[in-house]
């Protein structure tokens, strides 16, 4: 399809076809949606730009215009999604020189992102308020995410077979396509495939819950389409009833990690449990907590040295 493109083709048309040829069915649908969004921005910012006119200056102008409305990291992602197509156009002889060379990435100053999470007392209060029935419901789901720190899509994909009650472990090896047509999908990355320890309360409760349920079918997925907002609404109702901070399901993941860090669990162990690709991700996400812990460490160091 791309062979039919000439130097005089509009760049956004070239990019649209490049996505269809090289990305469609090769990447996750969520990632594909980001490429399509990038295409819409290219069409908006440079609707009349031809492939042959894509010079370093023209390319930098696209990045600059995009950066006016986005943070630097988002602009960098935009640049990376464009660059693959641009380099192919260079290889095909449609563009003489690489216009992405020495590109300058700008962007709006990022807003300070304050992660919402519960403290130990609030989480204990929330769990006590859950309505744990004999059949699976969203309160069961909230309990599982709070105790494991799983991502929303990972928890949806959990089947009875994933539990090893004898060894007190839970295998996380897939996600559920709740944004699309349903069905199992791979995890976010290789590091997300993991086996985590679960406490005895989860073992006792879930060993009873999954009795008689199909081994290979998701515990929490029925025939109706699942929306993130449905579970968030259920969680919000509990938070309001308990008089505690209102958080989202993803906030429960942050709560899980925060409590482990405050309890003295190493960053490496927390990173593995959360399925982060590297400890750097964990450090960036929970920087405020790590800084608090470092302050406590300084006090501990000084007390220790003073006692020598």
Automatic annotation (TrEMBL):
GO terms for molecular function: DNA binding. It comes from the Bacteria. Coiled coil: none annotated. Keywords: DNA recombination, DNA-binding. The keyword Transcription does not apply. InterPro entries: DNA_brk_join_enz (IPR011010), Integrase-like_cat_sf (IPR013762), Integrase_catalytic (IPR002104), Integrase_recombinase_N (IPR010998), Tyrosine_recombinase_XerCD (IPR050090). Residues 113-300 form the Tyr recombinase domain. One of its GO terms (biological process) is DNA integration. Pfam families: Phage_integrase. PROSITE patterns: TYR_RECOMBINASE. Belongs to the 'phage' integrase family. This is Site-specific integrase. The lineage of its organism: Bacteria, Bacillati, Bacillota, Clostridia, Lachnospirales.
